[in-house]
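Homework help board

Subject: predicted structure for assignment chain

Our instructor gave us this sequence and asked us to write out the predicted structure in token form, then describe one feature. I got the tokens but I'm not sure how to describe them. Can anyone check?
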Amino acid sequence: MHPHQLWCAMPTEPDLSVPDDDTSVMLVREISAHIRSGSLDRAEAILRSRLAEQPRFAFGQLLLGMIYTRGKRYDEAVEACERALEINPRLAPAPLQIGRIQFEQDDHAGARRQVDRALDMDPNLAGGQLMLAALALEDDEVEAAEAALSEVLEIRPRHIAARLMLAEIYVDDGRIRKALRLLKAVVKDRPESFIARLRLGRVQAADRRYKAAAKTFQAAAASAARPARLHVLAGDALRCLGREADAGEAYQQALTHQPSLEPALYGLADTQIARGELQAAQQTLLGLLQTHPRAHAVFQRQGLIYAQQGFFEQAIRAFRAALRDDDSLIRRDPVLAELLAPGVDLATATAQVAERIRDLLLPRFAIPDRQTRQRQRDFALHFRQMMPRNHPIPANEQAA
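My token output:
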């Protein structure tokens, strides 16, 4: 979730508020729902119909700018926001929306000017403080970001985006318990928030609270439009608890939604190997091997199967194939290369390598640092820009 994708607080003064007649309120809610779901053409058609009747509906012009922003029609979005300001020069969310557009275009200086302009109009505009926090984090000014987020929560104590961003800061600083308390509060207030549950589960798992993490991922999967990867995460957490049967069921659930999902197939094979269901594991791996004939991850698991069957020569051959196609294993455990060198005792080498491979294949939950998350966000934004408009991502996954 990134601040420029979130709805901001609406102004509170009478001359700045959203129109309070029932028709306008219903329109704003309808348009907002269409924007969040990605139905931009429908939202634009409804709004243009209203603006044809009431061209000086300032907030309508602002909503049009938001629609254009979501559709990456930035020039038209800025023009719509400027029209809103011509109608109502004190409509603070309008310059804030222009600032968001400039933020998306990496014009941080321009975004800061627009945010300051919005806050001059309305110092209690929570979205303005939220954007200040986002800009501060871009410059790695963590204290300034935390101060801005505190301002947001003074204005709106239950602001979901502010609390999620603050939780990220706590995690980065090692304040895990504080982050967990905040994330649990967000989930309690907004149980429908996909990103809040996902983040809570990841932090719980990284803090080795695997039982709680599994429950969190399962709850998130229950309401997600695409729950397969959440079932995989639940399975990974259950494996960390040694609950191989329950983990296998979670991976099977993932595969009912997405039959070719590789993490689910590998996870299922791992649970089958751990439970001695070697023939079933071979069948699970067979499809993967057909589509990925040089898949080192398949060779690793085949080596484990051969080792359990007592076929030491085949096991060593499979382990060597895995190392040949993926040198990251050796970087993670340099001793593997020595154990698999020519002339080793097959039985001893197989046992030792199998033990190390099993350890390497155990799920691990790590919290990426801020720089890694920034790279991930940049990639996600690039991916979104490349997607056709007629294939919108479901609303509960846009934030993720």
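Reply (TA_rk): Your tokens look well-formed. For the description, you could write something like this. Residues 1-17, 386-400 have pLDDT under 50 and may be disordered. That's the kind of observation they're looking for.
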